[in-house]
């Protein structure tokens, strides 16, 4: 099983919106609604931002939203803020394991 | 409040076996649906899922590392142990344990422990 495919980097200016894609296969992203997204700041543990494709844990800003179409999931961050600059990872449940994406570095210009 | 903390050696030699312990609080691994997983991250690289154990002792492993990994739980001690055999310098990474939520997500993470493999 290969890692899920994410763009290496994305960038945006404060106040703008950005979208990070996460492409898998019908055996993972496309086959289950168990896609989650994590934010990781340098030197810190990952933080869950989205689960079950589009649900937000308590305390996560509603500027973060998730969606899925076919084998590709997406994380959208609206109203970009400086504090959003971090690495973002997608993850998908499969019948036998869990996959992570290669990570996307978000730069807030 | 759910917390997890990893413990184990910070330095291991090539070919040695690594044993990491995840000590948690705020939930019980005897409760239906609960799981604890291990994830690692080499310096500057992406997250990699390693293993997962469920409340019913069902175990899942990364296909690429399955032959080297063993995950066990001690419900009475609120601990999950991961062993990885035949360590190599490429296994140098921060190792995290995490609580698995109902939808396959890892909703609570430990702080991570950096393990360096070097002679």
Describe the structure.
The complex is a heterodimer of chains A (109) and B (119). In chain A, 0% of the residues lie in helices and 44% in strands. Chain A has strands at residues 9-12, 18-23, 35-40, 47-50, 64-69, 72-77, 86-93, 98-100, 104-108. In chain A, the strands form two sheets. In chain A, strands 1, 3, 4, 7, 8 and 9 form a six-stranded mixed β-sheet that branches. A three-stranded antiparallel β-sheet of chain A has the order 2-6-5, with no helix packed on it. In chain A, a hairpin with a 2-residue loop joins strand 5 (64-69) and strand 6 (72-77). Chain B has 119 residues and is an all-beta fold. In chain B, strands 2, 4, 5, 6, 9, 10 and 11 form a seven-stranded mixed β-sheet that branches. Chain B has strands at 3-7, 11-12, 18-25, 35-41, 48-54, 59-61, 69-74, 79-84, 93-100, 106-109, 113-117.
SSE blueprint:
The complex is a heterodimer of chains A (109) and B (119).
Chain A: E1 9-12, E2 18-23, E3 35-40, E4 47-50, E5 64-69, E6 72-77, E7 86-93, E8 98-100, E9 104-108
Parallel strand pairs in A: 1-9
Antiparallel strand pairs in A: 2-6, 3-4, 3-7, 5-6, 7-8, 7-9
Chain B: E1 3-7, E2 11-12, E3 18-25, E4 35-41, E5 48-54, E6 59-61, E7 69-74, E8 79-84, E9 93-100, E10 106-109, E11 113-117
Parallel strand pairs in B: 2-11
Antiparallel strand pairs in B: 1-3, 3-8, 4-5, 4-9, 5-6, 7-8, 9-10, 9-11
